[in-house]
């Protein structure tokens, strides 16, 4: 296991509080290697990626947690995903002239944040996160406190090498001292960004909570992975419809689709498009064009 690509869950024996730390070096570098993101986008995506891993830490189902930011400003879309297997991926769409600015300014008026839980079996669930606070961490804290009635403290940081985060949550029905929450969060707030990015989980927990009884679980490896496939791209083409896909193939000789997450290219020629739609859709569209 990579020392610096893992998720570390922990629990306080003397207080009804659980926590998780995540640090991603290699996984974050895999995201950055696929796109030349400007600094403003790297900052947003790195924090989103760390947050998605932390929020997915306590999922009780097989599936994916997806965090999306939608905007009408310079930042059009930012997506970070984490699966129950601790694989992550992220992507963004943005204007070429984007510069570093507060999140609300980047998204513009009408920006939204959506959290989606997508189980492998069952219906997906979505929650709308209000754009409150001046950071992704503050926004998600407000959401967890209001929507899930779960007091939380979220600290996020990233640079060009590492994306990392710390999450504390007060358990509604727990053990130990119920008044310890404030003490533990005050200590968490002393953690500097350079410490969060530079120290491993063991050192951070010792730095913050060496006087507490902390139960540390087995660390879980985090890695970059993309679940795109020819079959998934084919399903997307089916949603576009045979007419539109066939017109592109007739004009260009094939239709090419690139994965926004990993950059993989998928090319479908005439025979593959006909097979995809279960009929000679290319010939039908060609005949229609000739008639007109």
TrEMBL record:
Redox regulated molecular chaperone. Protects both thermally unfolding and oxidatively damaged proteins from irreversible aggregation. Plays an important role in the bacterial defense system toward oxidative stress. Pfam families: HSP33. CDD domains: Hsp33. It comes from the Bacteria. Keywords: Chaperone, Cytoplasm, Disulfide bond, Redox-active center, Zinc. The gene is hslO. The keyword Iron does not apply. Its main location: cytoplasm. Belongs to the HSP33 family. This is 33 kDa chaperonin. Disulfide bonds join 226-228, 259-262. It is found in: Cytoplasm. It comes from Vogesella oryzagri. The keyword Chaperone applies. Under oxidizing conditions two disulfide bonds are formed involving the reactive cysteines. Under reducing conditions zinc is bound to the reactive cysteines and the protein is inactive.
């Amino acid at each position: 296991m990579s020392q610096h690509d893992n998720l570390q869950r922990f629990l306080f024996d003397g207080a009804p509080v659980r926590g998780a730390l995540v640090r991603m070096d290699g996984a974050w570098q895999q995201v950055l290697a696929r796109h030349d993101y400007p600094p403003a986008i790297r900052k947003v995506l790195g924090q989103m990626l760390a947050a998605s891993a932390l929020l997915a830490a306590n999922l009780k189902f097989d599936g994916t947690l997806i965090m999306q930011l939608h905007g009408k400003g310079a930042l059009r879309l930012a997506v970070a995903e984490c699966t129950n297997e601790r694989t992550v991926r992220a992507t963004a769409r943005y204007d070429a002239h984007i510069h570093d600015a507060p999140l609300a300014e980047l998204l513009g008026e009408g920006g939204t944040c959506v959290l989606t839980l997508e189980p492998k079996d069952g219906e997906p669930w979505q929650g709308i996160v209000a754009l409150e606070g001046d950071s992704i961490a503050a926004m998600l804290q407000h959401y967890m406190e209001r929507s899930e009635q779960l007091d939380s403290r979220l600290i996020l940081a990233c640079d060009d090498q590492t994306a990392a985060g710390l999450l504390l949550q007060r358990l509604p029905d727990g053990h130990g001292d119920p008044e310890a929450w404030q003490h533990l969060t005050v200590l968490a707030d002393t953690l500097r960004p350079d410490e969060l990015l530079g120290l491993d989980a063991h050192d951070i927990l010792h730095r913050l909570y060496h006087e507490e009884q902390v139960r540390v679980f087995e660390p879980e490896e985090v890695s970059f992975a993309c679940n795109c496939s020819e079959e998934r791209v084919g399903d997307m083409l089916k949603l576009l419809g045979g007419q539109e896909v066939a017109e592109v193939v007739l004009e260009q000789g094939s239709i090419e689709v690139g994965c926004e997450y990993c950059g993989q290219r998928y090319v479908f020629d005439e025979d593959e498009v006909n097979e995809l739609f279960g009929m000679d859709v290319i010939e039908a569209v060609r005949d229609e064009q000739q008639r007109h």
